[in-house]
Amino acid sequence: MSGELAGRAALVTGAASGIGRAVAARLLDGGMEVLSVDLRPDQGGPGVPHQADLTSPEANERAVAAALERFGRLDVVVANAGVQHVAPIEEFPLERWQTIVSLLLTSPFLLAKHAWPALRASGHGRFVAIASVHGLVASPFKAAYVSAKHGVLGLVKTLALEGASEGITATAVCPAYVRTPLVEKQIADQAKAHKLPEEQVLEQVILAPHAVKELIEPSEVAEVVAFLAGPAGRAFTGVPVTMDQGWTAR
Ligand SMILES: NC(=O)c1ccc[n+]([C@@H]2O[C@H](COP(=O)([O-])OP(=O)(O)OC[C@H]3O[C@@H](n4cnc5c(N)ncnc54)[C@H](O)[C@@H]3O)[C@@H](O)[C@H]2O)c1
Known about the structure:
This protein is of the alpha/beta class and 250 residues long. Helices cover 43% and strands 14% of the residues. The chain has a single domain, classed as NAD(P)-binding Rossmann-like Domain (Rossmann fold).
């Protein structure tokens, strides 16, 4: 597959860890130039590192400007950075709601807004949001995450219609649980919210809605993003690209 994306440039957010890291590595392997944007690029991610707190509107604009300055073009935006907070609605802190909506919904909007002229100039612009199966269905105790991810589905549908005559596609990859620090970090909170011992959380909470009782690997999500970024992804626009181990089949 190496080289099929050669000559094109991407911006990937949340690229220091988990899915974003795997996506940046896969796009580099395909021959792309990649700006790896993260709150903590010091952790060492693939691609050209760019430090940004994407809950700040200006940081999103600066990240797009940095990609254009470095590469002179921008063909693919992968809006991936994310955090989670698990708490019942009556205890859910407003501050966590605001952070999650800023990072999961407002950041993708701002990245698309600022990258739009470059994506248009590309002739084959691609906007890919890493949404979630939680953009399609809900789970308890995740009010902010589920709301923001549903919003991202609305955003890519809108972008798909606006991009249709400009050669720009917009999609939302919707994975079920992927083996990353984001999932590992919520085990303690899930145990508390569900009143279960931590060792039972993976089987009884996390994998319970999966028909296939296995975590997805970050490299598998990265392969889907590379497909969407490449020529064969041309007809995918305005849709969730669901990879959910059978979760929504019920
Ligand atoms: N892991 C899963 O099961 C799963 C499933 C479906 C969707 N997702 C989505 O995939 C995306 C990546 O998740 P992951 O599991 O790889 O998480 P992760 O915790 O491994 O990585 C997230 C990255 O985002 C960065 N980040 C956090 N806050 C930031 C900020 N304010 N500004 C810039 N960067 C910031 C972190 O530093 C980290 O490198 C998220 O949008 C998540 O919602 C994850």
